Amino acid sequence: MQSYLSTQAFQSPLRATSVIKPQGNRSNKTLVAALILTSLVDAFSILVIYLLMNTSAATEQLDLEKNLTLPLATQSEVLQAGVVVTTINGKYKVKEQEMKAEDLMKTLQALNLNLKDADDNRHKNLVIQADKNSSFETLNPIIMAGTQAGFETIKFAVLPNKEVSE
Amino acid sequence: MSHKKDINFEINLLPVISLLAVCISFLLLTTVWIKIGTLDVKQALGDSSVLTQKETPSLWVIMGESGDMIFQLKNMASTKKKQIRFTGKKSSFHWQKIQKFTKSLKHDVPELQVALVFPDRLTSFDDVVKTIDMLKKTQITDVGVAPL
After folding, report:
1. What is the pTM of this model?
2. What's the CATH architecture for A72-160?
3. pLDDT, tens digit, 9 for 90 and up, residues A4-14
4. CB-based burial of residue A33 (10 Å sphere; 0-12 exposed, 13-18 middle, 19+ buried)?
């Protein structure tokens, strides 16, 4: 069986035009070297495996605000579905909608009721996303509103930090 | 005519490479590089509070404005020292001492499962998370945060 590459290879143009001893069609030597693709396939396979391993099984994701740095925690758990409240520069955001601290309670209560009616698991969790330098004073209205609205668990969004062995 | 057929043959790898390239592109685009986790807390005080209903040994952690941290042991049968204060330095908490203390506390009181954190209004979110994280690290599973 003839090699796949040999059928694709071009003849040497220099040798073919030679006056003294033209070797246009007689020569079996080619200018094109066969590329060894096996190593490339290996490298690609390793990349695919690495990326597959890196893909998280958890489906829930949070959109991080630009100027927001989350605190680090070693005992963090996998993010579960919940209602996300973001606070940045003293402003509160629920579902991309900016609001005042006074309106948080009403909004969260309505959201919780809607989710309960729809039998959505998100009615149990309230995820608080805040900058690590923000004071507890700014988080307090969310905690108060969340617990009054009927959320069972309050979850602080954090960045998982690898535990340092002591 | 005896034409000897060569048993060696070349697999066409181009479709394999194309397929892998598509896979890599897809995975590169969809992989989440920044993984966000959560630190779960329960409501510490109030009508619907679960933590304060039981008469179990609990630890109250009061975070002061000037970096002071007070540990109070509640519902304890033993006559051990029930309040310990850690004075902060330059309005930041003395984390090394505090960590050492919580570790020894859990060792002394293994039944301690409940802790309530009382942050000050000016306590930073980072410090609150650090305290909860530290308590969870010492196997205190039910950690709550008290609102102001």
Report:
1. 0.73
2. 2-Layer Sandwich (3.30)
3. 555 555 556 66
4. exposed
